[in-house]
């Protein structure tokens, strides 16, 4: 559904999205990476369980909430991809995180 | 000319409860409400139906609150049935956490005092850390224990207000939003409120306008002493359920968001927020529930509580203008069941209510003399 | 890090950059707060590090941002990047969140250059995966060099939509259709303003250039369409609309299969920080927009607060930059010892240029005013994307006696979600105004409350 304009000339990082490995360009946002890898949802809403994808890409709409490296409800469009990052769907309300 | 049996001034939880109660007794009621930006304690409410800790300094208030909480289950059922609106009421029991020995000791004596005031009607237990943890596994080791009463509960205060308005509508209450009242005339033929809508007239009038009551009371020969008290509250993103009963500082709503309070400030008519107070509230919450540290805040707000000099409610009929009443209090959620029931009956003249005499403004005059 | 500056500028777009650079060059002690990693704002996002190929697709207007960033870098102003303003109130202490730490900064003058956001465009199915804003398309292009691949439809109205179509054509992106929702009578309303726009004729030529390119590329363009909606079960499958009644289309329904739909209907001022600071705002009927009230220098109703750029009324990138330069002159005058004569002399040339760039606005504003259908959606259309509240529920609350958005919010939860009303506020006010037949100015808007950017309880507790 999305592609890069220029295929060459930038470093890439490896991320796991929904437990599958992908090579994506370094420096892009998680939301951009998820779109580039062809996903058709990032989360299900806590109200009606309906699927959503990033909508505004500039931090306003909060539709791109994902679970990133185990932390729920992150705005995927505001977080840059990092090597070995684990990116998962946000399913409804946030899970509770115990403090280490 | 618009003629009614009652004018209720104020469309918050207090005014709507009384209007709803009056209308259920088949009276013709008009509610004159403020606008979208009025100070509204009802919109800043924490949603507790709360007994524990109330009335330690005033036995009639302890008994009054206890009765309100006991009326609530039936009141909630009736309101939901009539309005068709689910208000998320649960009499789940409630806790007040103690973090230090001193807090614990003070809590014990306060709770015991209330139990005595109510001749044992108020029941509570002091739970140690392990007992609290058995009920709320997420609690931190910083919490020494808690006072616990099965008589406490919670409700969604916004849905409660909406249900009351819908209930008013079912009983043909006329609701006038966006009203400013310039003048109220007390004449032989009744009360005439000069409002934005025009002149609204009725045989009796009830002032339930919160902070507006002072100015309105002046028009009807009532000196209503008010103290403004700002509370700040914040709310988080939705979380999976972790807290199935409310506590005084933290409660999880039916939607999954976590409401966190609470604070007292004397800052006049400023319903804003301040970072230092928000920080204090957040700090206490994460001390109680460490996992909240990584939870995001969605919104914080301030709201003005309507307090009286001794923090207890005022129920008063004007001596100068009989037929004019005022209801001035905080805890509009807990007392909603009383306001829609016994208080509405008292105002309608259907019932003598000996208890209500305790709440007249005479108590302030006595202490001044 | 310092906790006090003479001037604290919030926002790293053209208005903020120009203000900060010009104020710092006058010797003022200036810091600029930017939530992005690099200066440029949304319009010049990533401009400093953009590759040559990007410039080719984005056009030469985008390059103007590069010069602004160079000036800013050389000006001596402090740059606080990756910093979001989570707190502000009338005491004017700005709460910044940087690297998970909150700190407060004060300043003699606060300059709010927080720009604009796209006007929400509620239509049936706009919550479906695959529907996004044209602005989102631009961010993907500028920040990541990513473009749609598959069946793409652009819909709505406004210059940004045409610009995006042109940029996509340069980048070799296939566009299935351009669906223009501008009602036919808008052009009739706008035409009388055309002569006034002549000084800025370059804008008009640019628009014509875009339209010509779209036509030459053979992209089907549907004009004056009605009843636009996105359809699909789990994600977007098709875009549907009706052609205008009358000779050509006769109201017939068109359905285009699509993977991605990008929507746009202009931009609205970003008011959260100005409102938090206590600035007066006013309704601009021509732009259908609440804007911060200000004088020519950017002085708001609050003495210590200046406002520049799109948050004080939609002006566009170049005018925003010029407003920033005027604001810096006034800052120099008020706190930097610049006498009024030199200030006014320096302002004269900027004024002339600003006037020229603003002359296009009446025509553009009238032509691209949002179509009523997207201001007042059908009862079944979602208005609040966070709490999933439909237009019908808002109308019902209004009928129950809610005379403003804050009461509607209390009854419906509309605007209570994480976006805090950014994606529903303008629609809610319009729906209430229509339902109770009251002017929008009276109905008002959502009250803003902190946090203005996400902060965790832990970050707040440790602040």
Walkthrough of the structure:
The complex is a heterotrimer of chains A (100), B (369) and C (463). Chain A has 100 residues and is mainly β. Chain A has one domain: Ubiquitin-like (UB roll) (Roll), CATH 3.10.20. Helices cover 7% and strands 34% of the residues of chain A. In chain A, strands 3-2-8-6-7 form a five-stranded mixed β-sheet, with helices on one face. A three-stranded mixed β-sheet of chain A has the order 5-4-9, with no helix packed on it. The longest helix of chain A has 7 residues. The radius of gyration of chain A is 13 Å and the shape is globular. The termini of chain A are far apart. The mean pLDDT of chain A is 94. Chain B has three domains: 170 residues, FAD/NAD(P)-binding domain; 57 residues, no CATH class; 81 residues, 2-Layer Sandwich (D-Amino Acid Oxidase, Chain A, domain 2), CATH 3.30.9.10. In chain B, the strands form four sheets. In chain B, strands 1, 2, 8, 9, 10, 11, 16 and 17 form an eight-stranded mixed β-sheet that branches. A four-stranded antiparallel β-sheet of chain B has the order 13-14-12-15, covered by helices on one side. Chain B has a three-stranded antiparallel β-sheet with strand order 4-6-5. In chain B, helix 1 runs parallel beside helix 5 and helix 1 packs across helix 8. The longest helix of chain B has 25 residues. By secondary structure, chain C is of the alpha/beta class. Chain C has three domains: 185 residues, FAD/NAD(P)-binding domain, CATH 3.50.50; 146 residues, FAD/NAD(P)-binding domain; 68 residues, Orthogonal Bundle (Arc Repressor Mutant, subunit A). In chain C, a hairpin with a 6-residue loop joins strand 4 and strand 5. Chain C is globular. The model of chain C has no long low-confidence stretch (mean pLDDT 95).
């Amino acid at each position: 559904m999305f592609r890069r304009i220029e295929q060459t000339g930038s470093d890439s990082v490896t991320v796991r999205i929904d437990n599958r490995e992908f090579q994506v360009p370094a420096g892009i946002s998680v939301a951009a990476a998820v779109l580039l890898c062809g996903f058709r949802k990032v989360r299900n809403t806590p109200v009606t369980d309906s699927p959503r994808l990033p909508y505004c890409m500039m931090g306003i709409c909060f539709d791109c909430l994902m679970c990133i490296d185990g932390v729920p409800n992150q705005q995927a469009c505001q977080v840059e991809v990092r090597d070995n990052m684990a990116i998962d769907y946000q399913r409804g309300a946030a899970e509770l995180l115990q403090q280490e | 000319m618009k003629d009614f049996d009652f004018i209720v001034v104020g469309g918050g939880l207090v005014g709507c409860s009384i209007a709803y109660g009056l209308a259920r007794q088949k009276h013709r009621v008009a509610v004159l409400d403020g606008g979208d930006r009025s100070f509204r304690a009802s919109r800043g409410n924490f949603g507790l139906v709360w007994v524990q800790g109330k009335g330690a300094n005033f036995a009639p208030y302890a008994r009054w609150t206890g009765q309100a909480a006991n009326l609530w289950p039936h009141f909630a059922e009736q309101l939901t049935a009539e309005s068709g609106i689910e208000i998320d009421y649960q009499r789940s029991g409630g806790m007040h956490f103690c973090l230090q020995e001193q807090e614990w000791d003070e809590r014990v004596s306060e709770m015991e005092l209330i139990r005595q005031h109510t001749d044992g009607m108020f029941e509570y237990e002091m739970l140690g850390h392990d007992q609290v943890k058995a009920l709320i596994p997420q609690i931190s080791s910083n919490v020494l224990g808690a006072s616990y009463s099965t008589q406490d509960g919670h409700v969604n205060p916004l849905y409660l207000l909406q249900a009351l308005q819908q209930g008013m509508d079912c009983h043909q209450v006329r609701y006038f939003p966006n009203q400013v009242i310039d003048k109220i005339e007390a004449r032989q033929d009744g009360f005439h409120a000069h409002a934005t809508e025009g002149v609204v007239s009725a045989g009796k009038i009830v002032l339930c306008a919160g902070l507006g009551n002072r100015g309105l009371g002046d028009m009807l020969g009532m000196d209503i002493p008010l103290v403004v008290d700002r509370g700040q509250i914040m709310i988080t993103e939705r979380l999976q359920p972790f807290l199935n009963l409310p506590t005084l500082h933290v409660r999880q709503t039916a939607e999954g968001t976590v409401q966190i309070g609470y604070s007292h400030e004397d800052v006049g008519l400023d319903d804003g927020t301040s970072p230092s107070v928000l920080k204090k509230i957040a700090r206490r919450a994460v001390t109680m529930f460490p996992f909240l540290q990584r939870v995001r805040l969605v919104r914080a707000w301030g709201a003005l509580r309507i307090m009286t000099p001794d923090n207890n409610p005022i129920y008063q009929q004007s001596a100068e203008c009989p037929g004019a009443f005022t209801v001035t209090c905080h805890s509009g959620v807990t007392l909603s069941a009383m306001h829609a029931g016994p208080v509405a009956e008292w105002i309608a003249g259907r019932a003598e209510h000996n208890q209500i005499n305790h709440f007249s403004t005479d108590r302030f005059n006595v202490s001044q003399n | 890090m310092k906790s006090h500056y003479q001037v604290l500028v919030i926002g790293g777009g053209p208005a903020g950059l120009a203000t900060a650079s010009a104020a710092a060059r006058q010797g003022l002690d200036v810091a600029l707060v930017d939530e992005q990693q690099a200066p440029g704002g949304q319009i010049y996002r990533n401009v400093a590090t953009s590759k040559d190929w990007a410039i080719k697709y984005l056009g030469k207007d985008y390059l103007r941002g590069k010069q602004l960033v160079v000036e800013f870098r050389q000006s001596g102003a402090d740059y606080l990047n990756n910093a979001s303003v989570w707190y502000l109130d009338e005491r004017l202490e700005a709460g910044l969140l940087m690297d998970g730490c909150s700190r407060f900064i004060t300043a003699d003058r606060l300059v709010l250059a927080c720009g604009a956001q796209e006007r929400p465009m509620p239509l049936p199915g706009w919550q479906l995966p695959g529907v996004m804003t044209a602005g989102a398309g631009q961010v993907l292009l500028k920040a990541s060099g990513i473009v749609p691949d598959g069946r793409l439809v652009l819909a709505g109205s406004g210059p940004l939509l045409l610009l995006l179509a042109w940029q996509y054509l340069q980048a070799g992106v296939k566009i299935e259709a351009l669906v223009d929702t501008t009602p036919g009578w808008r052009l009739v309303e706008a035409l009388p303003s055309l002569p006034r726009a002549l000084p800025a004729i370059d804008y008009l030529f640019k628009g014509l250039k875009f339209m010509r390119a779209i036509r030459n590329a053979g992209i089907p363009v549907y004009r004056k369409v009605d009843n636009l909606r996105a359809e699909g079960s789990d994600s977007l499958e098709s875009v549907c609309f009706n052609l205008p009644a009358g000779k050509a289309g006769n109201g017939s329904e068109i359905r285009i299969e699509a993977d991605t739909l990008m929507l746009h209907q202009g931009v609205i001022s970003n008011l959260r920080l100005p409102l938090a600071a206590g600035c007066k705002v006013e309704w601009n009927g021509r732009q259908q927009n609440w804007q911060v009230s200000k004088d020519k220098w950017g002085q708001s109703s609050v003495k210590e607060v200046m406002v520049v750029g799109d948050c004080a009324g939609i002006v566009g990138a170049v005018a925003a930059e010029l407003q920033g330069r005027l604001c810096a002159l006034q800052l120099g005058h008020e706190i930097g010892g610049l006498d009024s004569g030199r200030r006014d002399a320096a302002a004269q040339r900027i004024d002339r240029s600003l006037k020229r760039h603003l002359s296009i606005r009446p025509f553009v504003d009238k032509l691209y005013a949002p179509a009523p259908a997207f201001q007042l959606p059908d009862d079944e259309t979602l208005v609040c994307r966070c709490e999933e509240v439909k237009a019908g529920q808002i109308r019902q609350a209004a009928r129950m006696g809610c005379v403003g958005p804050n009461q509607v919010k209390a009854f419906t939860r509309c605007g209570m979600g994480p976006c805090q009303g950014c994606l529903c506020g303008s629609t809610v006010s319009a729906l209430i105004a229509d339902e109770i037949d009251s002017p929008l100015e009276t109905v008002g808007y959502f009250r803003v409350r902190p946090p203005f950017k996400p902060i965790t309880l832990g970050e707040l507790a440790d602040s």
